[in-house]
Design goal:
The protein is built from ten helices and 16 strands. It starts with a strand and ends in a 13-residue tail after the last strand. Helix 4 packs across helix 9. The protein is of the alpha/beta class. InterPro entries: ADH-like_N, ER, GroES-like_sf, NAD(P)-bd_dom_sf, YIM1/Zinc_Alcohol_DH_Fams. One of its GO terms (molecular function) is oxidoreductase activity. This is Enoyl reductase (ER) domain-containing protein.
Length: about 350
Amino acid sequence: MSTRGHSNLPLTMRAWQYTSTTTGLENNLILNPEAPVPTLSSKYGDSEILIQVLSTSLNPADYKVPELGLIVRAVIRTPATPCMDFCGRVVAATRTVDTFRVGELVFGRLDVTQHGTCGEYIVAPTKVCSSVPAGLDSDTAASIPCAGMTAYQCIAPHVKAGDKVFINGGSGGAGTFGIQIAKALGCFVTVACSSAKVEQCKGLGADEVIDYTAVKSVSQTLKEGGQVYKLCVDNVGLPGDDLYKAADGYLLPEGRYIQVGGPMSFASLKSAANNFLRPSFWGGGSRKIELFMLKGSQTQDLDQLGKWAVEGKVKPVVEEVYAFEDLPEAFRKLKTGKCAGKLVIRIARKEDRANAVSP
């Protein structure tokens, strides 16, 4: 294998693993103290780095995808390690890597894979990584990638300064980033959230907050303001919700509706299918609708998000930081759907977290 880096790397590591998700991922996780450390590609030309993970953060997809059962087993071999987001230190690289150096702090997001980020080491393609900017700590950096890039790619390509944006679900990971990104781009931002999260959303910069517990219908409240919104980002996606069907009444004619979140259930799939397939003359909506998927240059997007974080324009909201050993409890908290920001897991041992802020 053509690599460079430390020659005294361990052969095994601590990693959370699962072989089944029956009764829930959180109830099937086992901490393996001797999981094999993943290895860099031996193929000539592959640009990969081996990373000692310092911190990760949780996203709903981290449990929703594994819990798809047989559908995902065809893609992910078990025992598998969950999670996608990471911040860590480069400890080795393939010879073709010239963008990152051994010892550098990087952050990014893996695709869902057998070797996720809840282990002490991961292998990542350089195209999904970015250097941690000076002054950013590992917990904060690890909270950015998935939720931050989701919000950025949902909003940035579709708006300009002065546009109005509506975000359904403003208090979760993608929502808290979405509010701040839209404001950084000069937009007027309206969000929907529960009464307990109203002040948080206002504090992040929301110009208008709809408390969904205090109104008869969010969609009706939006329609009363007329066709003024350039973009709707739906981070909730509840089955039976008429938010998209009603979008003709609050989105501009050229407005766009982007579906991000939603429960993994038959009812949700049926509701999404109706939104995408039912034409307007059969009771469907007529505005552009898109099911969000991450795309494009992740490095470039991470560079921008890191820059904004250091400048204070986008401040990642971390609700709670968990010890590595408490990962199942963190998943239980995530599954309540009541998180006001990101849940971060500290992976590396205390002695390995020294100097975990980029100089």
